[in-house]
Amino acid sequence: MKIDVALKVPREKAFYFFTSIGNYTGENAASLKEFMEKINMVNTKSLEFHLQRGDFEKWISEVLQDSELALEIRRLQKLGLSGDALRNQLFSAFSRRIRYLSV
Amino acid sequence: MRYKDNAWLLDQTDLKILEALQEDAKQTYSAIGKRLGLAHSTVYDRIRKMEQQGIIRKYVALVDAEKAGLEKITALMTVFTDPKESEKVAEKLAKSSKVLEVYTSLSEELVIIAKVVSGSQEELHSFIADSVAPLPGVLRIRTSIVTKKFKETLASISPDLSES
Fold first, then answer.
1. Under an 8 A CB cutoff, do B125 and A18 touch?
2. Residues of chain A contacting residue B80, judged by C-beta atoms under 8 Å apart
3. Which of B75, B124, B134 sits opposite A16 (nearest CB)?
4. CATH T-level assignment (fold) for domain B2-61
5. What is the tens place of the pLDDT at every residue in A13-28?
6. What ipTM was predicted for this assembly?
7. Residues 6+ apart with CB under 8 A from B32
């Protein structure tokens, strides 16, 4: 199945960025492209929170149905990255995937 | 109790009776009368009038949910909203069985404050992430999980009111 990087999912299926249990940052993403943009906007605490919980992997796999990117994110999770190092690695993974899917 | 300007005005005796009922709604008219120095018939008449006028809405049980094993997590959730959508968000929250109380408040921003109960932190997070954050008009959410309760009451009038 060809994945449309800009295709937006309905708001109830979008990804909502939290920094901890119940604390929503106000940032959300409804497509792969939007998600990549938000990686550079949200607090790294939020990225760490969701990566540890496996939320990114789950959303990419279940909502965007991109199993390859989900696998890449799972690999990142195992590296135990934090802060800007995590942000950079996440952004690279998403931008590589978007470039590949856009060809 | 008397009627003035489309509203019932309560006197000090009414307020003291309400205060006594808020402490223990199962006590008898005689017990209240004895405490306040009133005949039990006076207490009965005043309570009946306040029931008829909807000032006393109903009598309910205050359940200790933790002892009953019905809940594990209580959280106070502050929802920052677009002022245009605030009422709708508050109404949606009020419909959820996980939400026990909902208030709107205006400080620097218009916010909704809600008391939420949940079986676990994970269940609380799923509720907020799946059912609250996606509501149109929700700008951000701050949630504090209660670690210890020092006071909880259903009272809606303070004893200070019946003493003034």
1. yes
2. 26
3. B134
4. Arc Repressor Mutant, subunit A (1.10.10)
5. 999 999 999 999 999 9
6. 0.89
7. B17, B20, B21, B38, B40, B43
